[in-house]
Specification:
about 140 residues, alpha+beta, Alpha-Beta Plaits, 4-stranded antiparallel sheet, 8 helices, 4 strands, binds inosine-5'-diphosphate, transferase
Length: about 140
């Protein structure tokens, strides 16, 4: 079994997509091992997305991610990291609507910024991101 960190971002939570997204997760064979709703503050988002700190969109990303509560989850299944990324679809939700119409971002997202969900992009990321939000899971996997 592998674990990954999934987030339903503010547009997903406020847009009432949570139940549909959770249904998709369960139907796809994942269990939701942990979950909690959090209102992120700027410092937390800065730290979580530190690898993007030099990007032009960084301040917008912080505004977006602090614009409302998020649902943070640890998903567990074989190949959880790659499978959740595949379910989410490409970063740019407007492109996902054309190339991956059944993906979560195509259905719930809007554009390259407001794309509704997050997923760890590698084992290394998952091992950092899981304990970032769930300190009790300190080894990450
Ligand atoms: P990912 O979420 O698909 O892994 P990343 O490149 O890691 O994509 O970007 C993190 C988040 O930053 C994206 O999910 C999106 O919300 C935002 N983002 C990425 N690229 C842009 C951009 O060019 N403009 C505005 N926001 C962006």
């Amino acid at each position: 079994m592998e674990r990954t960190l999934a987030i339903i971002k503010p547009d997903g939570l406020l847009g009432n997509y949570t139940d549909d997204i959770k249904k998709t997760i369960i139907e796809y064979g994942s269990s939701i091992f942990k979950e909690k709703i959090v209102q992120l503050d700027e410092a937390t988002v800065e730290q979580f997305y530190a690898q993007h700190s030099s990007k032009s969109f960084f301040s917008r990303l912080i505004k977006y991610m602090t614009s409302g509560p998020v649902l943070v989850m640890v998903l567990e299944k074989d190949n959880a990291i790659a499978d959740w990324r595949a379910l989410m679809g490409p970063t740019d939700a407007s492109k996902a609507k054309i190339t991956h119409p059944h993906s979560i971002r195509a259905k719930c997202g809007l554009d390259i910024e407001r794309n509704c969900v997050h997923g760890s992009d590698s084992l290394k990321s998952a091992q950092r991101e899981i304990p970032f939000f769930f300190k009790e899971l300190s080894s990450g996997q």
